[in-house]
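ugh finaly. both done.
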Amino acid sequence: MGLLQELVAIQREIYLAFAARIGNFAETGDWQLLAAYLPMGIVFGAVHALTPGHSKAVLATYLTGSTATLPRALVVSLALSFTHVTMSVLIALFSLPLVSVALGSVGRAPLLEDLSRGVLGLIGLWMLWQAFRGTAHSHGREGSLVGFMAGLIPCPLTLFVMTFAISRGVPQAGVAFAAVMMIGVVLVLSVVALAAVLFRQQLLRLLAARPRMVDAATRTIQVTAGLILVTVAWNAIAG
């Protein structure tokens, strides 16, 4: 709990400092002043991605139960990060027509959340079917779809920064911050993705001398991952 509070405090300090820079940029239009602070957006994104949320559990669960390679895992994490941040930028830029349809409260998008969880639930059912059928092949487009759907839930802090920048008449400053912030999010989610794949590969390597156990372990991992995704989707719909 102490670590989480520290992360939240760091986020708050960076956000307030950047809000001040946006205010200065709105008054002066000096890109150099803004650019000097933009690298802090990477730290902001990384710290923010370490806090609960951002579909880290979904990402790790899917990659552990799939046959995705390390490069493919990076693609999935990139798709998730890009969609997660970009969705907030789009919501802010097109807020008037979109907020009334998708947003139920500040920083949340119930419509997008339901769509995300629903498709992830279908992917979970697909993984269960693969496990019982005895196939473990994972298509690249399936992994990209997982990343895209998991990322549909917008990033609240990106949305706040964008809204603040727009309110000051400098949406380009918000977009610039979102772009560098996404780098930090990508770094953290890539580590999660690589850890999940390496864990699976190491487990299967330990069982390599026992083919039957490898098959049993692969099916068990797939069933577990599929059940988790289906459960997440069901709880979202039931809630």
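ok and the 2nd:
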Amino acid sequence: MKTIFFCPMWGMENLSYTEAAKRVKAAGYDGMEISAGPDKRNEAVQVMHDNGLELILMAFGGGSNFPEHKKKYHDDLLDIASYKPMFINAHTGHDYFTFEQNAELIQTAADVEKQTGVRILHETHRGRFSYSAPAIQYYLLKLPDLRLTADYSHWVNVAESYLADQAQNVNRAIAVSDHIHCRVGHPEGPQVNDPRAPEWKDALESHAKWWDAIRARLQKANAPTLTITCEFGPAGYLPTLPYTQQPVASQWDVNVFMKDYLKKRWQV
């Protein structure tokens, strides 16, 4: 099984796609995960192709009410799929939508996937239908074809725990998680300030065991690839010092560390 590491464009918005791609390639990544507006998608695809990088594109809904949100979500997915990324990572629905509404959006994604042949995964994320380990269970039970991007750092934050008392909930998600966002969360936030620091050793190991389990499942299924985005966020998401707003660590260095940490852990 080939392990493919992606770097997020998030945090590098001051760079052009070409500058970002060259930096990412030099650092040993295999691709980029990008949230690109309609006017930027063609450029993103072309630049990744020119630099020999794989591409994941992101999708979001929008609008002030559910019908508007659903239409934007559908149109966005259809347009993004036309660029034939490796797959689409979708931020689907809202925590305040009903189950029926969120299920409509998930079905919308399934319809687009069937129509275009482009795989669509749904990220586990605060504020979305998938905002917590308990909240997603009904979806997993009722919608057996649902596939996830695993970012369990959000669940750790929501639950204010490392989910030791929710093993069954997490295991159901692991069974359908096909892409990993290797961010490390903690009970009071979705992102530790620096996973290299010794005080976060247990937090890092808690998350890494979940990632190990996803990897083991895919290996057992003879999956051709495992994809991982090293997605620690920039200042604001990354804690900052008061008054100066200087980040307490380098987002770039932390994400490179996560890539190298997993390469060493898995000997890939």
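summary for the 2nd one i guess: The radius of gyration is 18 Å.
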